[in-house]
């Protein structure tokens, strides 16, 4: 499998605070990578780097071997835990808007056949996530799970190659979470996506991902906690032939060459 995203010796610093240090990682096209780690370890920062929303202080992020442009582009789509969708637009308008801006960046509006085609594409995408009966509903009238389905449709309609998920199921009930797991695995396979997902839920990470990466500090200075940043302390390939063990924390213990 070819590499799609590469992080080369990344450092992220905010003033004196070092958030990430010496992070190097290659992500193969088609993989499902989950990033786990304690709160504040820099997981979302990782996603912002992959999205191009933020540039590293040092090091490089490459997409297909080329430096990432400091902006979002159609190659990457993103879904956050909440507030990914526009509350004043219906489900259909939310998904359509992305297509209109992709095809008509200045006006953000399509006309005639181009608009009819875009409406069909948006409807198909909403059908793929199970929202075909809610096209004209506003997000406030959708359940949390349905809002996340809408956010996924909005991200996928532009056919990104990389889908970035920041705790996408974190606010959902356990039963809805399981439905969303099935949905995301189906879309991952159908669309040939590469997925990078941040989650606090280790069971979720091991169930969904083909690779689980833990970020945490490799070294601590008790007098100056901001002095050292997080790095990759373990990089695990879950065994998909076996059920996820109840206690997966032991699988994420740092290997001696990673500390
Ligand atoms: N723009 C910024 N300026 C200063 N510090 C920042 C900025 N953005 C993030 N940080 C700090 O970087 C650290 C990592 O933040 P990040 O949101 O990436 O962590 P996280 O692992 O995703 O945390 P959580 O699991 O709680 O969401 C935090 O200490 C945060 O306060």
Automatic annotation (TrEMBL):
Q: Which UniProt keywords apply?
A: ATP-binding, Nucleotide-binding, Transport
Which Pfam families has this protein been placed in? ABC_tran (PF00005)
Top-level taxon in the UniProt lineage = Bacteria
User: A GO molecular function for this record?
Assistant: ATP binding
Q: Does the keyword rRNA-binding apply?
A: no
Q: Which residues form the ABC transporter domain?
A: 5-242
- What this protein is called in its record is ABC transporter ATP-binding protein
Q: Which organism is it from?
A: Asticcacaulis currens
